[in-house]
Predict the structure.
Amino acid sequence: MVIAVADLAMSFALKNDSNVSDNPRWSHEKADGDGPASRLPVNSGPAQKTDSFSLPRFSGAPTKIPSATRALTLRIAATAILIFACYFTIGLQLAVVPGFVHLQLGYNAIIAGLAISVQYVATLTSRPFAGRMADSMGAKRTTIVGLLVGTTSGIILWLGSLLTGYHLAGLCLLLLSRLVLGFGESCIATGATLWGIGRVGGSETAKVISWSGIASFGAIALGAPVGLALEHTFGFGSIGVVSVTVMLFAFLWASRTAAISIVQGEALALGKVFQRVFPYGLSLALGGIGFGTIASFMTLLSLLQRNR
């Protein structure tokens, strides 16, 4: 939840920056020579008395967020909601899968942690494929494929919940469901982010990525307690049913949203792409180690302490 709030604050900061640059009460005048342009205030009203220790003040109503900014946010939200649906499904499972594996299927904590991490292994290995799919098929089709794959994952999870009496079979179906969900996550996150950028233009990339972060971490924060409530009230199988419902709703939403054109560009080898993004990706990976460790075992620890 803290990460989601931080992403939200970043998004509003980006909005405020754009509002200042678009404010008609400020003009950009070219500086003398080749130096950078300076930002000078334009007096839109009668000047008030000032002294040497105060800045000029201007009359008039405070600047409001223009309707164009709200329209831009809504266009971004149209694809960010698909990311929200994906990570809400992930959040549903995050809090209940370790307990299901350990307490109902009877496997140890290592296997319970593996059931969580196997999804992210699938996401890691399938991201390059999802990127190539978005380049060739388009962002909308890639996202829709991911949503259908996520729906399939929910069905497999539900089937696994019916085999609690057959521990190995139940575990295998659960792991298969997690692997399928990891592949679906790659397609949805990649496709929906590129879809959002294509809808508003490359100049708004930072805002699209910011709202994608809000959608993903906010959905996980909401999905975890909802998953616990569902599992406690209706059983583990309800997680699969709700996952299928959410993914199908997102599929219908995506089907009604306009596609963007496929931009043909120079293809880069995976090795060159890896070299360019490695420093930034490494920072993100190191920052996520703690999150992954806590997310995998916090619920299990809570269940064990409660059962003592």
Observations:
- Strands lie at 26-29, 38-41.
- The chain has one domain: 75-258+271-306.
- Confidence is low (pLDDT under 50) at residues 1-6, 8-59.
